[in-house]
């Protein structure tokens, strides 16, 4: 049997892991990294590149690349790159395909099944879009797991003796999730979860870039429109500075000129850690909302939390540990790498699915993150008003769950009811998310108040099944709200499958050289004039040698290029094994 892989399909970075020899293990990509940037690019040749080469290309040719598209999952919106249009599940599928190839190379066999993680706060459409992305990549998605649940599974797997109340705080690139859970000797019970789908480390970078531009009386949004190259380079500088500030007290940001060129004459913007913290204060304050909500829903006071676990790369910012210390009076735990913990947990989940003996004493229960219900009509002083929401399954109910509610007709001789199914927390359905609808007919004519029974069944993957029937032996009506019921029609899905098959990916064997080229191309705009000429000359030779097919010429050109990089004080991003040692 082929193995089920565990995939953390992140906004910024994605990882793939497998459960082997009794433990979860990460798999490296062709560049030797476990983190694959969730970036897709289309080269002028029309070939698609994924991961770090695409990230390099994004700096110099932002219009050819897409990033943070996880934020568009579940929305019927397409992105244009390199003149072609793609929807978010297609872009995610390209990332998944690249991870699948890495796993196949590592395992030496075909990989066809996966567990994929999603933010706990992802709604139904976003979950189905993720499932679709898996299918487009040729992966049967065996389970969709909430990211903080996966993080907790990784910790639960490593510490089987624990008995405690854990709070997982997961701040990734684009999303923020908080999950409260009980761990009792290998049994993990998720109590409550809350989050925001538009709050992550990328927002911290944007705030910093915006502050740098403001200091020059420039506006971020305006510049993004007019000078995209300048903003993409400035963002790179801010991203690097943000990371430096996680371990140092100050960092310098070089400000590119309006054409986006950086060189030794570029002006510096020096920033201290405390100034950065003040700039991002509004974002830090927003983190408290979901934390309060998860604790409130779980009826848990701050002092009752035994441990706070950090997941997601953005929790490396010291301000996050400070926030935990101030609010909970304790130092957060990050004994597992916050970048890796979700993927490791996904592999533990895969082991649970196949009943691996190494996890036989691990049990896990999860909750549904949002309230599910139907639209109803209310009567106020004799007149009927439509558009109210009636919950059937409340948020943070343990899953799988099945609940029944009775509804009734409102008009005389009404023989059918259109049941509209919504997800959300608002009192009126217009503020919630429509998941689908179901017509129930065959209701015996009579005065208003003829009953129908509605049953909601929500499974471990977050798929909702709705059944309705007239009591006393009436016909059963059923709807499974799967991806056909979300945004895309069957035809659109077929089209997407066809488009995916037609995509030409840049050959895997040459990816490392391609990344080296793109890396140097980015450098060309970032070094002084003299160095630029030398770099361009060496790069030309290298590219010519690559296409010549002459191995000796290629090795010589590569050696010259790498020597030049060393000369300029820059490390080769694609070292060979021999060069490393
Ligand atoms: P996702 O799960 O959304 O892909 P990750 O968990 O990989 O996200 O985290 C990515 C985010 O973490 C990015 O916004 C990145 O800037 C941020 N990040 C990574 N390392 C650091 C660091 N050392 N200091 C501050 N932020 C960091
Ligand atoms: Mg993540």
Description:
Helix content is 36%, strand content 28%. The chain has 16 helices and 27 strands. The strands form 7 sheets. Strands 1, 2, 3, 4, 10 and 11 form a 6-stranded mixed sheet that branches. A 6-stranded mixed sheet has the order 17-12-13-14-18-21. The chain has a 4-stranded antiparallel sheet with strand order 20-19-23-24, with no helix packed on it. It is globular and about 90 Å long. Bound molecules: adenosine-5'-diphosphate and magnesium ion. Residues 8, 10, 147, 172, 312, 342 line the site of magnesium ion.
Question: What's a quick, concise take on this entry?
Answer:
The chain contains 16 helices and 27 strands. With about 575 residues, it is α+β, with helices and mostly antiparallel strands.
Which tags fit this structure?
581 residues, alpha+beta, Nucleotidyltransferase, domain 5, Actin, Chain A, domain 4, Substrate Binding Domain Of DNAk, Chain A, domain 1, 4 domains, six-stranded mixed β-sheet, 16 helices, 27 strands, globular, binds adenosine-5'-diphosphate, binds magnesium ion
Write the layout of secondary structure elements.
Elements: E1 4-9, E2 13-20, E3 23-26, E4 36-37, E5 40-42, E6 48-50, H1 52-60, E7 65-66, E8 78-81, E9 84-87, H2 88-107, E10 113-118, H3 124-136, E11 140-146, H4 147-158, E12 163-171, E13 176-184, E14 187-196, H5 201-214, H6 220-226, H7 228-244, E15 250-255, E16 267-272, H8 273-279, H9 281-297, E17 307-311, H10 318-328, H11 341-353, E18 363-367, E19 372-380, E20 383-393, E21 398-399, E22 401-408, E23 416-423, E24 433-441, E25 451-458, E26 464-469, E27 476-480, H12 490-502, H13 511-524, H14 529-548, H15 551-567, H16 577-580
Parallel strand pairs: 1-10, 10-11, 12-17, 14-18
Antiparallel strand pairs: 1-2, 2-3, 2-4, 5-6, 5-7, 8-9, 12-13, 13-14, 15-16, 18-21, 19-20, 19-23, 22-25, 23-24, 25-26, 26-27
Helix pairs in contact: 1-13, 2-3, 4-11, 5-7, 6-7, 13-14, 14-15
């Amino acid at each position: 049997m082929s193995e089920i892989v565990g995939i953390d399909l992140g906004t910024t970075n994605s990882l793939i892991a497998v459960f082997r020899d009794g433990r979860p293990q990460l798999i490296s990509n062709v560049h030797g990294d476990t983190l694959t940037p969730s970036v897709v690019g289309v080269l002028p040749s029309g070939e698609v590149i994924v991961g770090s080469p695409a990230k390099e290309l994004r700096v110099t040719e932002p219009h050819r690349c897409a990033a943070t598209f996880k934020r568009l999952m579940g929305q019927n919106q397409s992105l244009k790159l390199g003149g072609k249009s793609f929807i978010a599940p297609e872009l995610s599928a390209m990332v998944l395909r690249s991870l699948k190839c890495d796993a196949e190379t590592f395992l030496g066999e075909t990989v066809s099944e996966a567990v994929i993680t999603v933010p706990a706060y992802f709604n139904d459409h976003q979950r189905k879009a993720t499932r679709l992305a898996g299918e487009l990549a040729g992966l049967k998605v065996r389970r969709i797991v909430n990211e903080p649940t996966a993080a907790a599974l990784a910790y639960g797997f490593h510490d089987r003796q624990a008995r405690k109340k854990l709070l997982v705080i997961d701040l990734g690139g684009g999303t923020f999730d908080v999950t409260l859970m009980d761990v009792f000797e290998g049994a993990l019970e998720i109590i409550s979860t809350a989050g925001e789908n538009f709050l992550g480390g990328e927002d911290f970078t944007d705030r910093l870039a915006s502050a740098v531009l403001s200091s020059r009386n420039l506006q971020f949004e305006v510049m993004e429109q007019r000078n995209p190259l300048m903003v993409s380079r400035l963002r790179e500088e801010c991203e690097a500075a943000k990371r430096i500030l996680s371990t140092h007290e100050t960092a310098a940001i070089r400000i590119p000129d309006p054409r986006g060129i950086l060189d030794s004459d570029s002006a510096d913007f020096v920033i201290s850690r405390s100034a950065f913290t003040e700039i991002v204060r509004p974002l830090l304050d927003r983190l408290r909302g979901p934390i309060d909500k998860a604790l409130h829903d779980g009826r848990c006071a701050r002092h009752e939390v035994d441990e706070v676990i950090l997941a997601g790369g953005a929790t490396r910012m010291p301000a996050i540990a400070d926030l935990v210390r101030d609010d909970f009076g304790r130092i957060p735990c990050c004994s597992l790498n916050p970048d890796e913990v979700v993927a490791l947990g996904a592999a533990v989940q895969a082991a649970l699915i196949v009943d691996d003996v190494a996890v036989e004493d691990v049990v896990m229960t999860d909750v549904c993150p949002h309230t599910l219900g139907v639209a109803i009509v209310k009567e106020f002083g004799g007149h009927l008003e439509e558009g109210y929401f009636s919950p059937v399954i409340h948020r943070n109910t343990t899953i799988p769950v099945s609940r029944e509610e009775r509804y009734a007709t409102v008009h005389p001789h009404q023989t059918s009811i259109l049941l509209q199914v919504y997800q959300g927390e608002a009192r009126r359905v217009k503020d919630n998310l429509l998941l689908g609808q179901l017509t129930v007919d065959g209701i015996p004519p009579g005065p208003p108040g003829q009953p129908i029974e509605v049953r909601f069944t929500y499974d471990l993957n977050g798929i909702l099944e709705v059944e309705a029937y007239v009591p006393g032996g009436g016909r059963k009506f059923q709807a499974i709200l799967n991806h056909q019921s979300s945004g895309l029609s069957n035809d659109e899905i077929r089209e997407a499958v066809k488009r995916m098959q037609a995509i030409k990916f840049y050959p895997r064997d040459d990816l490392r050289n391609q990344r080296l080229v793109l890396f140097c191309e980015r450098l060309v705009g970032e070094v002084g004039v003299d160095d630029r000429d030398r770099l361009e000359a060496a790069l030309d030779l290298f590219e010519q040698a690559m296409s010549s097919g002459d191995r000796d010429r290629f090795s010589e050109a590569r050696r010259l290029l790498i020597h030049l990089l060393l000369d300029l004080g820059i490390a080769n991003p694609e070292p060979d094994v021999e060069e490393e040692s």
